[in-house]
Amino acid sequence: MKAFFTRFALPPEQRGGVALLLLALTTAAAAQMMLLLSYFEDPAYWDMRTWLIALGNNTTPLPGLALYVLAGTLLILSLRTFGWRLPALPEMRCEAQSAPTPRFGFWLTAFGLAILAANYAARPVESQENGYALALTWILSLGLFGYSVLNQSGWQTPNRNELRAWWKQNRLEVVAVLFLLALAALFRAYNVERIPYSMVNDEGEMGKGALCLLRGECRNIFAIAWASQPYVAYLPYALSVGLFGHDAAAPVRLVSVVTGVLAVLFLYLFAREAFGRPLALSAGAILAVLPYHIHFSRLGVDNIADSLSSGLMLWLVWRAMRSGGAGWYLLAGIVSGLCFYTYPGSRLAPALGLLMWGWAAVTRHGFLRAHWRGLALWLAAAFLTVAPLVGTYQSNPEFNQRLESVGLLQGNRLQEEMAYTGLSAAQVLTVQFFKSFLVFINTGGPFQFFSSPRAYFSPIAAVFLMSGLAIAIWKFHDLRVLTLLAWFFAPLVFGSALTVGPPSNQRMLGSAPAAALLTALGLLAVAQALSVLKSFLRHLSVVLVVVVLLLDGWQNTRYYFVEYQQGHFFEDLNNEITYESRMLIRSLQDSGRLFLIGEPMTRVHYGNFGYFNPDVEKYDFNPSPEALNALPKDRDALFLAIPSREAELRRIAEQIPGGAWIAEQRRNQPEYPLYFAYKVSKEQLQSYRP
Amino acid sequence: MTNQYFVTLFLLVISLAALDYLLLLARRNEVQWLSLRALQTAGQRVFAWLLRGWEVLRHRLSAPSEQAAFYYETDSSEQKESVPHKKTSAEYEIPAGAGMAHVRIEAEVPPESVLQITITTDRQGRAFVHREARRRLRLRMPTLDRFSLSKLRQVSIQVLQMPAERLAIWLFLLGIATYLLTRLIGLTDFPIYFFGDEAIQTATAADLVRDGFRGARGIFLPTYFQNGLYFNLSASVYLQVIPYLLFGKSIFVTRATSVLVTLLAAVPVGLILRDFLGAKRWWLGTLLLSIVPAWFLHSRTAFETVLFVSFYTAFLYFYLSYRLRNPEQVYWAVVFAGLAFYSYSPGQLVLALTGVLLFFSDLTYHWKQRAILLKALGLVALFALPYVRFRLTIEYSPLDHLRSLGSYWVQPTPLADKLARFASEYLRGLSPGYWFFDSPDMARHQMRGYGHIPLWFAPFLFTGLILSLWRWRASAFRTVLFAALAAPAGAALAEIGITRALVFVVPASLLTALGLDVILTTAESLSKRLESRRLPALVLGNLVSLLAFASLVVINVAMLADSLRNGPTWYTDYGLYGMQYGAKQIYQQTVVPALKADSQARFYITPSWANGAEHFVNFFVPREFQSRVALGQIYDFINPDHPFTDNDYFVATWLEFEKIRNDPKFTQVTVRSTIPYPNGETGFYIFNARLVENIRQVLAEEDLARRTPVEQTIEWMGQSVRVRHSQLSGGRLEDLIDGDPETLARGERANPIFYEFFFSQPLAASELVLTTGSMRDFDVQVLVYPPGETRAIEYSKKFTDLPDDPTVTIRFENGPAQFDHLVLLVRDNNQGAVAQVHIREIQFR
Q1: Chain A to chain B, count of Cβ pairs less than 8 Å apart?
Q2: Which of B2, B4, B12 sits opposite A112 (nearest CB)?
Q3: What's the ipTM?
């Protein structure tokens, strides 16, 4: 008996800590429960003026959040009791190096070429004429600059022996990471054609951009295309569509799949550098199975780039800060520039990198002196990369068009929101913030390309996310943690809280890797606290991590691949029509035209029509005897009607008899019609008399 | 890839890669950019290889008599030249048993000879001595002695051997002469227009003299003179007074006065390079400025901007004199700054910014010179007095001028937007794209294909820029950079345009000259290393200078020839929005001679082809004839009570004439003569015309027809919209809804102009956004009909003193949420019932 107590009982000095830890976790679980049970779907839930009055009836998030604050405090106290600390901060190079011996470099040439490209990009006609040459000039500029940097720094490719030694030293980790990436890829690529269902028209727009590039119609890759993004953003899509064709959604979606997997990889790499392997693996695993991230990794629009750019950026900057290597700064600069070519949310990534670098410079003696050259290199590379785009925006001022069209502080939107809700400006902003924040742990993410009834994180992960957040606020002065907080909150605030209609699912993806890292931080902190116990319980720490990760993975995958799909939350009739009608329309080829009776819901200029069938002539059509009579009759005609306009199509069938009537049901909800079509030959069309 | 792009790319890569190499050398030297030792070494190697190759080639090809000789055991100098080349060997056997042998060789070797001795031993221990001597070869370059024209030879030798400083002065003077000649030759033929803004200078000066030096409002020696609605003429008018008194009014005199003032830019540019920037070939500045296309063109006009640039350059020179030579020169700096201030309004900000930058840049020095500066402040106050008097007596503020320029600063937009726009415009004013490539400036301010600054300046300019940055601590270099930074500031207040940003050509020329000088000096010093004895360093340096000078003079002359020969047809839009061609041809060559010849003749001249056409009458037409000249189109003079006679001559553009010829109101339209455009097409018609008999009836019918609305159906906002509207005399209904405020629809003499919209489906909009043409005072009235209602909700708003082409918003604050019928009326309150009201854009939001 005594032996049993010796084995399981806690030493007296650790009992307080364990009690606090258990209390913290229990309180956090209660907080999460309280939030889950609150009536967040009730619009009155967001009337901030009633939050204090309605504390008791659970129609406000305050009780749950208050409990979370308490849980966080308890957790911090318990961790202090255990003497828990963040992993040691890796050393950074802070000693200044003597100026290197000058070597030949194409410095001015690279800048000159970039400015030339920028100059031409600013002129629409010339840039279209010299599109490919402009791209080559840009690449040449970057190539020459890269060569100059590497030549100056004396960079050499690692030899075989070094690679072999590295492999021997890291093979287990490599296998683990490959497994992690395979897991991430599996969750992202599995049946990507149908999940999520169906392909949305914005994906079609991306596909159209890709086709435009592939067909040589859009030669200037710096020109602004759909969604105010330059065609550079469409290059990966062009590659994919060029390889796999444009018969299906998958070619467009594959780009996001790869991007999503890379986001997991770079989250791992940054977390490994900054916090160590266990936390990196946990964070990677959490992100790999996060439904929110999985969803956008399967959607053929480039919002997912936000989650890649920030992780990649921070990793490169971290490497550069540690080693002072010119190559890392060069890559950081190029990536900073490329961030301006993709989804606008990625523009936060260079700011995050600069914040981390700046904080290190402020808090570390000698850092600035040791790294100013690196900073100059970083900025120069970023300038070279972004130069043609600057030129483009000079003649086409759409740089902030997205922000201006959705920003809360732009135009009169804040005033309108105040007038609509009756709240003050501060209250509106507070509500906007909570709507954006709570979607991670509690409320659903309606509309905005996700339409999820569940929060981004599973309840168990949410508990650890909040724990991680509490720890991060506690340790905010640490360079890594400050960066992590900024990484989490910057997209949340700028991408969602300060835009209309929060939570803006598609604009907060940059926060997802940071949230995963915070969750892992909370989880690992608890586990590490347990591991210092002088009892058998310490063996539970690893079990706890594995169990939580498995449980979270199971909850997430079950939610996304079963509940979310079965609930048809993402499905949209308009998107389905444009997607499912592709083969029918394609059958027309050059011998027929599409007349779409789809207004006001569906119109022919929607992306999917253009992506799947770019060469078929398409018209929005409102039937009337005059309109029918005015139809060109030299080709067959396919009349396609949305369900609500079936009657008009039937009248056409009566007036031009003999055609083929086609009725399609929705794929996942077959009880509802998808569309009706009526196909007539040109001879039948010619026989029509009004 | 277009050829233009390819050429640009190629030039850029070549020149920048070369600069990169120079940069590397500069970095390796670490101290002196100019010394370029490494480049000299590298260059020397290359030249040494070439020389060696040449030596060998020459050796092989040369005649035996020119070959060197071998001298052995001889001391006869006579023989040196005559003894042919020969080889000899000797064999010495080493005594048996001796391990070594001593070989003694005696030789007398003449100068510039090489003696090679080879000693070899074989296995048997025998030694062989092989000797070969030959005269050292040297280059026999063609010498000046061989020129047969002795005088030319003498002058050439004198020039080539002239001290570099003296030669530089000669080249500078010749450069000034070239500058003047390339301005004055064909001065009235290029630019091909003579602008109202040029004519007004002399015309106003003449009025000033006539009125006892009192301005239009009776003010003695007014500070500013009115140009249209705005007070923006000052020093430029006073400058024309003496030339007017001496030579009267003519295009040449007006422009030549301006050209002579531009010497204040051309001369100081050279002197700044010599006295303060330490350029060896300082005369380059003048010649380079001369061929900057933007300057070449504008320095041949009498625009005020040219005066500003000139005075500003003189100010820079005297400021640097004050700073680096003699503090007393500050008074001159103040004088020229004051003249620059009163020359050109947009230049005032440039001047102010330059002043602020220089003040802080040399603060320590200023403090040391505070006694002199205090006195200079008195001079500043003196120069400020006219401006103070103007501001106190005339209700006109700088904001009015900004409004006249359509500046965004007077637009109702947030300050952040204005600052962002300013930054954007400012950077555009510094962008290579604007200066080197096609700029969006109007054709009449460009020389086709030249760019505002020649592209080949770029590498030199860039080198000069790097050099100036390198020597940032030197006040002179800093001043040049500050001048470049300040240059676009004035233009950025409105929109970058070459006339407003012209002053940039001065620092650009300085930097280019600096860069070119560095490169030429480097090439010269590199050649010195090679040390050709027949081509001493001085001669080589002078030769380089002369070659550069000759090249620049050739470019100057070629540019002049090109502009005089091809300039008239570079751009073929000769109308209002193009070259505004015709002042000289209409007034000087046609109207005035006709008025002199026929005392009964009256001329009615269309003003539609030029801005400020009214100034031409004052400028060209002698006062005694002015009562017989009227400005306007024939329609403006139709009066049934006073029919036209054969003494009434009308001058109309070809487009107006086409309309007049087919107009039923006129009969007996007889063309008396035509004025062709430079491309040979007829530009203007001078004709007589008679009114038809029933002119009263025709006018009444026309008026009735004009007032009848027309109807049209358009596709707009996804629906078909029926629109009833006043008749249009220009533009189309679609221009109102195309989202492009550049396009417009102009009413056919209907004030208010009205548009009535009938929407096929109810429209949900809460405001109407309207962009009109420029009007000082106008009313907008909107009647909005809810669907199915016949009673409208009415909104009226009056707008005054808005900037040009204003955009106004009418909010439907009282509803309705939807409407299907809307009437819009816009009235110009400054015009009668037959005004042509312009509407640019209509949007519902």
Answers
A1: 64
A2: B12
A3: 0.81
